[in-house]
Every structure is written in C-alpha cells, then in structure tokens.
Write a structure and sequence with these properties.
Elements lengths: L1 H5 L3 H13 L9 H8 L15 H8 L5 H26 L6 H10 L4 H4 L10 E3 L5 H4 L4 E11 L4 E10 L4 E6 L6 E3 L2 H4 L13 H11 L5 E4 L2 H8 L1 E3 L2 E3 L17 H9 L12 H16 L8 H15 L2 E8 L7 H4 L5 E7 L3 E7 L3 H10 L3 E4 L5 E8 L5 E8 L3 H13 L6 H4 L11 H43 L1
Parallel strand pairs: 1-7, 2-6, 6-8
Antiparallel strand pairs: 2-3, 2-5, 3-4, 9-11, 9-14, 10-11, 12-13, 13-14
Length: 492
C-alpha cells in the first residue's frame, strides 16, 4: 500500500476513498466515516466529502487497509490511472503519431467515470488481462473490434454471459456465440436477451472458450469498441486497456449529464436510424455494429461530439418516464420476472437492475404515471417511506406455485412531484409535457434513479442488520435458558 500511495495524486486518492465507500469497504479503523470520527475530533463526519480532505487524511485512511484483496483492489485503481498516464506520455512524446483511433482511446480513458467503471476485479480467478503497452507500434494500431454481450441472472444472484457478438470495422462478424453459463439460471431475461432455456440445449461453448477467441481477436494492439463497454467486459471477465466506449466519446456542452446517452439515442441522433423498436429484445449483432458505426462516423468526421439538445430531450423524457415506473427491490432470486406479474397489479414490463447474493431489483415500467400510481395504490402492504422520503410498501406474497416471501415496491418520484406533474398535464390539456417539465421547481424534480439504487442498498443493509440482531437476540435468549436450567440442576 505504501508504494501505491507514494506515487498517487490527490485525484486518485479521492477516487480510492469514494470507491471504498461505494463498496462498503472497511479498514482496521472501520469505514471512511468511522475513521473520521477517530482521526478528526474537530470536524469528524461533518466534512466527509473525500475531495474536501487533504492528502494526509486520505492517505491515513487508505493505510488502514491490510487485507490482500483490498490491496489488490486499490492497486487496480492505480492501474487505471497508469493506463491514462501512458497515453498522455505517448501523446507528448509523439504528438504526430497519435492516430484518430488512439485519440478516441485517450478520450475514453480520460473520462472522469473511467476509473470507476473500469476498475475490474481482474486479480480474481477466471479473469483474462490485456495490459496497456508503451510500444509505439501498439499505440499506432488502428485495428478495431466491436463487441456486445447479453447476460442472464443466475440462482446464486450473479450475472453470467449467455450471448456474445463481435464485428470488425468492416462490420464483418468475427464472433457470434451462445454461451452456456454452467450455472443454474434463475431468469433468462428472454424479453431482453432473446434467449430461452431451449436455446442452451446442447450448447457447449463456455466463458473460457469465448475468452480464448477474444484473446486472438485482440492481439497486436487491437482496440475494443462498445457502448458502456465496461458491462460487457465484466461479463466476459476480460480486462483490456485499449478501449473506445461510445457512451463516453460524445459530450453535453451544457455540462455533465445525469445519465449516459443510450445507444438507441446516439443511433437516432448521429446515424439517423432507429436501433430497435420499443419492446423488442436486444440484438447483440445489431448493437455491436451500431457501436462500430458510431466510432467510424466520429473518425471520418461525419458527426460531431455534441449531444446537448438530445440530452435535454432525454432528461425531460426521463423525468416523465420515472413517474411511470415503480422500483421493486429485495426480490428473492428464486422469484422470476414473470412471477412479479402475480404480485404487482396492472400491465407493465420489467427492466432488471441490481443483482445481489440472494436478491435482485427491477423497474416495473407502466404506460404512464397514472397506471403506475394506480398499481401502487392497489398494492396490499405496509406503507412507509424510503431513505429519500419516497413512498414504498413492504408487500408479502404467495405465488400460485406455493412460493411465498416479501419484497419492497417503491415510487421513483416524490408525491409532491407527481401532483405537480398531474396539475401541469391538466392545465395543458394532457398535451406533451416535455416543455412543462423544465418549469418545475428543482426541489420537485425526480432525483436520479441511481439514488433509488442507493436507497435500496441502504434498506437492504438495514434489513440485514435487523435480521442479524434478531438472530443474536434469539441466541442470547437460548443461552439464558440453558444457564437457568444448568443453575437449577446444580442447585438440586
């Protein structure tokens, strides 16, 4: 750890601390806030933003980590910064040798989200690592391969690769395979992946087979292209340094956006075509080709990198869509997506989100906010508030299969916002509300969906601690009964 910290810049130390917080990591003096209570008696947790702390404070916290896996994780963050440094050094040393492709690689690696999204646990088993090279011939390579993957939800709560496609810059297919996860599958997510149980009958292709194919495709400095490529690399368990992420290489001139542009939005805005019709499953080949087309369009200067107007429209549309969604969390992994139709009333589609060890989360997407609100009102369950003050219900269920349990259904907007939105719709004769959304007060606007994820995570942790305390109380009660019985026996 000392060696890592010695060459670290404050920017990297801040990222290390923030990622440690996000992952719930704790050193010998606890997590970041627990550490501050001991380290800084004057300000304590009142100044908990890592970016507002000096290097000594950040350094002292990180030095409390001694476990091997923790050190490997921090070393990986340093590797992400090292990849950036190599590209910057190459640019300064050989400014005329930087190809247009290499510039997009550098743009990807310099994106502020890169160290967070691409900090993979590639030190774990089954991962394949392709390191960043300083060799000029590698840096000048213009060969590109675009990839897209689909994943299924397994019974152990993890996601596993089930389909992968890769194309070259001529859009020629280099890899197109259905993959057997070699695990018990809880949900094929057929409406998204297009894959069902019958599609895996007789399939022998495994993750190591795909990795071997990717290893050959990525030889001699080949650049890997994709949209939100970190998700695909996570599924492939592949850590590759030369990447172009199409969700990074377009920018909003109005400032940072709350959400990355979707591949569909970029295709429509920059390439002039619709990637897929609403409700249709993803197509790996189409998505890989779309990512490559976007990169080629940038390289050939057929499109610019400004998506300001598109992101304005997306943000307005997102707020409207949020009001038509319910966030369902703490769903037991043995409850399939189709089972939720028995639990939640109304017509909706599902968008799977967070996967944890024993539970997962999803969005129930309704036609509009009225239907979402009606479904929530018709749910039978204990009404409460989540950590952000949104209304949610703890719903107990018993499925037709006999399976029973509980889950949480949460609104994605505050009730005040929904009331204001309804009022605006009535005053505008139920016309398109994109314009009126911009007029709402900022304190009424839906908060980013990521906050909902964090709320779910906090709620899960609280519930886990409650269950643990209950279990401990039961153990203590049992021990007390044993002690009383032994005392009476000795008295006899």
């Amino acid at each position: 750890m000392d060696e890592i910290l010695a060459s670290a810049k404050k920017e990297m130390l801040v990222e290390m601390v923030k990622l440690a917080q996000k992952k719930g990591m704790a050193g010998s003096k606890g997590g970041w806030k627990e550490f501050l209570k001991v380290y800084d008696k004057k300000y304590g947790t009142s100044l908990s933003d890592p970016s507002r702390r000096d290097i000594d404070s950040l350094d002292a916290f990180l030095k409390t980590f001694t476990k091997s896996d923790d050190l490997k994780f921090f070393k990986k963050i340093r590797q992400c910064h090292s990849n950036r440094d190599k590209l910057e050094q190459f640019k300064k040393a050989s400014p005329d040798d930087e190809t247009a492709e290499q510039k997009l690689v550098r743009l990807t690696l310099m994106h502020p989200q890169y160290p967070i999204d691409y900090c993979f646990p590639s030190y774990e088993e089954e991962w394949m690592v392709k390191k960043c090279s300083k060799k000029s011939r590698i840096m000048k390579s213009t060969k590109m391969i675009a990839v897209d993957c689909e994943m299924v939800l397994c019974e152990d709560g993890t996601e596993a690769l089930v389909k992968v496609c890769a194309v070259d810059r001529n859009l020629q297919v280099k890899l197109d395979a259905v993959v057997n996860p070699k695990k018990a599958i809880a949900d094929y997510r057929t409406d998204i992946t297009g894959v069902s149980a019958i599609d895996l009958d007789g399939v022998t292709c495994s993750l190591p087979d795909v990795q071997e194919s990717m290893k050959k495709l990525l030889s001699h400095g080949t650049i890997l292209v994709g949209h939100s490529l970190n998700n695909d690399l996570q599924a492939l368990k592949l850590d590759h340094a030369r990447v172009i992420d199409t969700s990074y290489i377009f920018k909003d001139a109005n400032g940072p956006t709350r959400k990355k542009p979707s591949l569909s939005l970029l295709c429509k805005a920059k390439l002039g075509y619709e990637l897929r019709k609403p409700g249709n499953p993803h197509n790996c080949l189409d998505d890989a080709c779309a990512a490559m087309k976007l990169v080629l369009a940038r390289l050939e200067s057929r499109v610019d990198d400004d998506i300001s107007e598109e992101m304005k429209e997306l943000d307005a549309r997102r707020k409207e869509l949020d009001a038509g969604r319910l966030f369902v969390h703490r769903i037991p992994v043995n409850v399939l997506g189709k089972d939720l139709q028995e639990v939640i009333p109304g017509n909706f589609t599902l968008q799977m989100k967070i996967s944890r060890k024993n539970t997962y989360s999803a969005f129930a997407i309704f036609k509009n906010m009225e239907e979402a609100n009606e479904a929530f009102e018709n749910l039978e369950g204990d009404l409460e508030k989540d950590l952000s003050g949104r209304a949610q219900k703890l719903v107990k269920f018993k499925l037709g299969s006999g399976l029973s349990g509980g889950l949480y259904v949460c609104k994605t907007c505050h009730d005040d916002y929904v009331k204001q939105l309804k009022s605006n719709k009535r005053s505008n004769g139920d016309e398109d509300i994109s314009g009126t959304l911009k007029k709402l007060r900022t304190d009424q606007i839906c908060e980013p969906i990521q906050d909902t994820y964090q709320c779910a995570a906090h709620l899960e942790e609280i519930q886990r601690l409650k269950e643990e305390l209950s279990h401990r109380d039961q153990e203590i009660s049992n021990l007390n009964r044993i002690i009383v019985a032994l005392t009476r026996k000795q008295g006899l």
